[in-house]
Design a protein that fits this description.
There is one protein chain. By secondary structure, this protein is mainly alpha-helical. The protein has a single domain (about 10-445), classed as P-loop containing nucleotide triphosphate hydrolases (Rossmann fold). The protein has helices at about 10, 15-30, 40-50, 60-75, 80-105, 130-135, 145-150, 195-210, 215, 230, 240-245, 245-255, 260-275, 290-300, 310-325, 335-355, 370-375, 380-385, 395-405, 425-445, and strands at about 120, 140-145, 280-285, 300-310, 365-370.
Length: about 450
């Protein structure tokens, strides 16, 4: 890397002066009792107070939250702003579950729907998954989860919507496959929906706290975002280990049944498709590489779309992103520890996906997309996917082209990164990913 291209850590991860100042002043006031508590019972009480609701549902499990909080409090070394953000986020997650349970009781037919068929993007981080999902989102037949909605899947202000389900005359029993949804002519989201304002505020806050982050991952309140945030509602996901140092929680998670998280995510998908009907779900998150069997079990009619990119590029790019994430929460971020954790984790996730794919009949459930092809000309890459649905047509191709013209590559800046930023070598990555490297080279020998 040339001298003018400083490392991603220095370029993107140093928090602004005001951010460090607030942390310093706040920390010096701890003796006054300003240290924020992260306690399960206190978080639940706060969520119940915020919502005025009490029932988290019979499928809510205490242990995942308890394990996560124990790890956060003991290992994460959060600075004051990091503790504040974490508390607010956990209260929000619990509040969503309270609101969801309220609506499931009010309209039980929601959960009797069948999920739409799903195209689910399962590539590793930094392999073009965001670009691909946002392209597929321009198809009107597709239901995606924009950032404002995945942050808050259930309305904060339900009075804006007719939660009774509207006029269901002529709609068949959902048990036989017909979707029971509100009148699709109703505006969704409502222009006064608080969730959009919440998401816009979150985007603005991130720009203030980590100005360079958007060159790594562009966030837009109205654009699709990873559905891993729905797994967060069960406190069973890899989000915490991407945001902070929680090794004991991460180790526990790998040995724990993730079925409750996927079962609950399926319930939320039913709620969201009830609010806004479509023909097919477009979902994506790298986390799903680890659990394709659970996706198939709980989501039903699924096809996996797997973007691929050289690990020598995607891994350091992701490590740079994790480093930036963690510095929003802690002053003590060790990029070598980040690399050690996530290189092994990457190999583990790839191994789980390959094991599933190698089973009889599963190969046909995957479509492979090359990252370089997607960047060079997305239409042939998209055509590979649309073979599943009768092929592309001219109007849709023009929509894809228009989206790319309006959202060019590196629109938010250039993201520089290097293996050496994290003390890595290509052979060090190969050590954990040999099986995948063999498959990647067979697919894209160039």
């Amino acid at each position: 890397m040339s001298a003018d291209k400083i490392s991603s850590i220095k370029q993107f991860s140093r928090n602004p002066l005001w951010f460090r100042g607030v942390n310093g002043v706040w920390r010096s006031s701890y003796f006054l009792g300003t240290h924020i508590r992260l306690d399960k019972d206190d978080l639940i009480r706060s969520a119940r107070k915020v919502t005025g609701l009490t029932d988290l549902g019979k499928d809510f499990l205490d242990e995942p939250l308890e394990r996560l909080l124990e790890s956060v409090n003991r290992e994460a070394n959060l600075h004051p702003i990091g503790r504040f953000i974490t508390r607010e986020r956990f209260v929000s997650l619990l509040s969503i579950r309270l609101r969801a349970e309220h609506f499931f009781k009010k309209q039980p037919l929601i959960l009797e729907q069948q999920l739409y068929p799903v195209w689910i993007i399962v590539g590793l981080q930094r392999t073009g998954t965001t670009k691909l999902q946002r392209l597929l989102a321009v198809d009107a037949d597709h239901r995606v989860i924009p950032s404002w909605e995945v942050i808050n899947p259930v309305p904060i202000d339900p009075d804006l919507y007719d939660m009774s389900g509207g006029d269901t005359a002529g709609i068949q029993d959902p048990k036989v496959g017909r979707q029971l949804s509100p009148d699709p002519s109703r505006t969704y989201p409502h222009r006064k929906d608080k969730r959009i304002a919440v998401a816009n505020t979150s985007v603005m806050a991130l720009k203030f706290m980590s100005p360079g982050f958007f060159a790594i991952h562009p966030i837009d309140a109205m654009q699709p975002e990873e559905d891993i945030l729905m797994l967060d509602l069960s406190f069973l996901s890899t989000t915490p280990e991407a945001m902070m140092h929680v090794p004991s929680y991460a180790s526990w998670l790998e040995t724990t049944d993730q079925s409750p998280a996927y079962a609950y995510a399926a319930k939320l998908l039913k709620f969201m498709q009830w609010m806004k009907p479509a023909r097919r779900w477009i979902l994506k998150t790298p986390h799903h590489l680890e659990f394709p069997d659970l996706i198939e079990k709980h989501f039903g009619d699924v096809h996996f779309i797997w973007p691929h990119r050289s690990l020598y590029e995607s891994v350091p790019s992701f490590l740079s992103m994790v480093t930036c994430n963690r510095m929003i929460f802690s002053d003590h971020v060790d990029e070598l520890q980040v690399a050690s954790h996530w290189v092994r984790k990457t190999g583990y996730m790839l191994g789980k996906a390959i094991d599933y794919r190698s089973k009889d009949g599963n190969e046909a459930k995957f479509t492979d997309i090359n990252y370089l092809d997607l960047l060079q000309d997305s239409v042939p890459a998209l055509a590979q996917i649309y073979r599943l649905n009768g092929g592309l047509y001219p109007d849709l191709i023009e929509k894809f082209r228009k989206h790319e013209r309006e959202n060019p590559h590196r629109k938010n800046g250039v993201h520089h990164y290097s293996l050496t930023d994290f003390g890595l070598t290509e052979s060090g990555i190969d050590q954990h990913t040999k099986h995948y490297q063999k498959i990647f080279n067979q697919l894209y020998a160039r």
